[in-house]
UniProtKB/TrEMBL annotation:
Organism: Hymenobacter rigui
One GO BP: intracellular signal transduction
Molecular function per GO: adenylate cyclase activity
SUPFAM superfamilies: Bet v1-like, Nucleotide cyclase
Residues annotated as domain Guanylate cyclase: 29-162
Lineage: Bacteria, Pseudomonadati, Bacteroidota, Cytophagia, Cytophagales
One Pfam family named in its UniProt record: DUF2652
Record's protein name: DUF2652 domain-containing protein
InterPro entries per record: A/G_cyclase (IPR001054), Nucleotide_cyclase (IPR029787), Uncharacterised_Rv2561 (IPR020503)
């Protein structure tokens, strides 16, 4: 057997190991969240930070995954997710789509808070939003070196469905391939918060493709309403600790935002890793070794209001149980020589189906934050 024949057999085996179909294809859910307004935003904003914002948004789409979806590829402004096997229920699918949309929009609202930022101004003028296309069909799975490649007619269909006759730019579109797996009653209950409407589009080489769609706009009522640092986030999605620090707020900010100082006050932190040439810039990423693991941080915002209150924000990535989390450090003067620090962790959800696990992790994280802020106060008191 030649080398090429051996490679072909390996690719076939990768795609057919769990399938009994004669053609080697497997049933799969295909889901694509697509950022609407992406191209115009990149081209017209003229802001060098625009591509990095879009990269953050794509990462948030990936972190919002609660259906154990696999990422097949990232295509500029969209992510192709897939999951082999039976389809999720309509309720599970809608819960996933709502999570993606709300996490996406809440992050945009955070960026827009910086009214003095050119990037925030561009977002107001060149709005970004999200559409989500869902299809259920059959795919062939092949391994090409270290990459997984999905192939087949249904992969083409889900990509074609991104161009459709639906008016507006934020919606969920469900192909007939998916809706045919669910009862009318299950679909109606899952979309009780909006209207599920019929539609279809004709595609060359595919023909007429019927689908149902629902606008996502009603979910804007569920977005985290607060846009000011002193207002509370969504109930149940935040942990908060407070302590008076024996230094002025600007001094405390310098210590908190100094990556090198993080192991000296963060509970369990032993080392920090970052690019020295980028330290001090917004958008900089760094890693902190904590206990037996590692947490990835990225600086996002540093705002000061008219009354001198300072809000410093970092994004936390790859935090398995708390995906799409943000750490707010809010500082306000108590007197000339002290300030009140509020550490607040805002998260999208706790990635566990077990109530006791969620309760235990929240309690453990709250204790971690409390000890960290105590150690920070002790460190500043020694200056």
């Amino acid at each position: 057997m030649g080398v090429l024949d051996e490679l072909r057999n390996q690719r076939r085996a990768a795609g057919s190991a769990s399938s009994s179909a004669a053609d080697g294809q497997q049933p799969a859910l295909l889901l694509i969240p697509d950022i609407s307004g992406f191209t115009r935003f990149i081209e017209e904003s003229g802001n060098p930070q625009a591509p990095f914002l879009v990269a953050d948004l794509l990462e948030i789409l990936i972190e919002a995954n609660i259906l154990d979806l696999e990422v097949n590829e990232i295509q500029g402004d969209a992510v192709l997710f897939y999951r082999l096997g039976p389809p999720p229920t309509a309720e599970e699918l809608v819960r996933q789509c709502r999570r993606i949309y709300l996490d996406f929009q809440n992050y945009l609202r955070l960026v827009e808070r910086d009214t003095g930022s050119a990037l925030a101004a561009s977002l107001h003028e060149l709005a970004l939003t999200l559409k989500i296309v869902v299809h259920y069909g059959r795919v062939s799975v092949a391994r090409i070196r270290e990459y997984t490649k999905l192939m087949g007619r249904d992969v083409i269909v889900v990509h074609r469905l991104l161009k459709n006759n639906v008016a507006g730019a934020e919606y969920i579109l469900l192909s007939e391939g998916y809706t045919s797996t669910q009862s009318a009653g299950a679909l109606s209950r899952a979309f009780s918060w909006t209207r599920l409407l019929p539609g279809s589009t004709y595609y060359e080489h595919i023909g007429e493709a019927p689908y149902h769609y629902a606008h996502l706009s009603p979910l804007r009522l569920l977005l985290a309403g607060p846009t000011n640092a002193e207002e509370a986030p969504r109930p149940g999605c935040a942990l908060k600790v407070r302590r008076v620090l024996p230094v002025p707020a600007p001094y405390a900010l310098r210590v908190i935002s100094n990556f090198r100082m993080r192991p000296r006050w963060m509970e369990g932190a032993t080392a920090v890793h970052y690019d020295v040439s980028k330290a001090g810039r917004l958008g900089t990423s760094y890693k902190v070794d904590v206990f037996s693991g590692q947490i990835d941080f990225q600086t996002v915002q540093c705002l000061e209001d008219e009354e001198g209150r300072i809000t410093y924000v970092e994004k936390i990535s790859h935090f398995r149980l708390f995906p799409n989390a943000l750490l707010f450090c809010c500082l306000e003067a108590v007197d000339l020589d002290s300030c009140l620090l509020t550490l607040e962790l805002r998260y999208g959800h706790v990635a566990s189906n077990h109530r006791l696990v969620r309760f235990g992790q929240l309690h453990r994280l709250h204790r971690f934050m409390g000890r960290s802020i105590q150690q920070l106060a002790r460190l500043l008191g020694e200056r």
